[in-house]
Amino acid sequence: MKILVVGGGMGGTILANNVARNLKDELKSGKVQLTVLSASDKHMYQPGLLYVAVGRMTPDELYRDQASLLEPSIQFQVDPVDQFMLDNNQVKTKSGKIHSYDILVIATGSRMWPDSIPGLKENAEFFYTEQTAVKMFKRLREFEGGKVVIAMGVPHKCPMAPLEIVFMLDDYFKERGIRDKVQLHYTYPIGRVHTLENVAKWAQPEMDKRGITYETLFNLKSVDGEKRLLASEEGTETNYDMLISIPAHKGMEVIENNKLGQNGWIPTDRYSLAMEGRSNVFILGDTTNIPISKAGSTAHFEAETVGANIAALVRFGAPVRKYDGKVFCFIQAGSEKATYAMFNYTLPPDPKAPTRAIHWFKLAYNKLYWISARGLL
Predict the structure, then answer these.
(1) Quick check: 91 and 4 in contact, CB under 8 A?
(2) pLDDT tens digit string along 128-168?
(3) More exposed terminus of the chain, fewer Cβ within 10 Å: N or C?
(4) Both 119 and 101 in a single domain?
(5) What is the dihedral of CA 172, 357, 49, 306, to 10 degrees?
(6) Does 362 map to a domain?
(7) Confidence (pTM)
């Protein structure tokens, strides 16, 4: 049996390692063949980009060799998929090679989409790629005062990123001694400061305490770089001296090109994580169209479910688990404190007051991530 994993990010890596360990004997005997196809030989710790943007991590700390994170029984190839031929149980890579499969897992991730808002790409700072995070840090170092606006697009990767960056900026400017010269202004597209109601109830008093202003029901429509002015779909405007954006995201180009889902999100069953209409194709992480948080922990918990089910399908022809929507997100509430939100399809989050202990645990996880990617944590 051939198991093919497309994508070498968090979801694809954990899934492949889990399957390799669950089917160790089958792989050793040759009954099962497990292949991972990736676009890169490097694996990035994406949450670290937030720290790069405020000068708390360097880009070299974000990477490991992808092959070093995979079990030896996994066949790893840097050869991204160009074409999905699902009716034939095949994919074609950019090198022209055709891979057949019995079970396919698609975990291609997502990309930021600032082009969705006129003027945003040219005038805002972002922290979702190494290049833009470094650029943002250099801009912050040069900034001497004025109005910093944090503007949101939806959907976006990491549900807590908007709160984390505004609280970290608050501490960043305090550490530079210029917080009294900076107005931090936060915008959010719905009628509270976060999608998750309990998170919003926690975050709003934190903003009030820190003197962070905010405007809800602000859906970004356009950016005028010359006037340094944001316009909302609701008809309001706000000026800025520096614009930082958590932009809207979309799925990867290969998913759009193959018409597997609108804006690159593949229609996925929320419990089995099977692609709608395909019993042998599973979707992980940001690639799904499931309306839950696009976060590393989402991919992690989904990968554990699909890994167990693939092993069960190989051994006795039926899945054994359902994904319950579990997500766990740290919330960096500044430079020295953090809290967390844990929730699923039925249980809402209930974040507590930030503490230094959780902050240190978050920093520890930054190091433990590589063990997590191996599927050992």
Answers:
(1) yes
(2) 999 999 999 999 999 999 999 999 998 888 888 999 999 99
(3) C
(4) no
(5) -160
(6) no
(7) 0.94
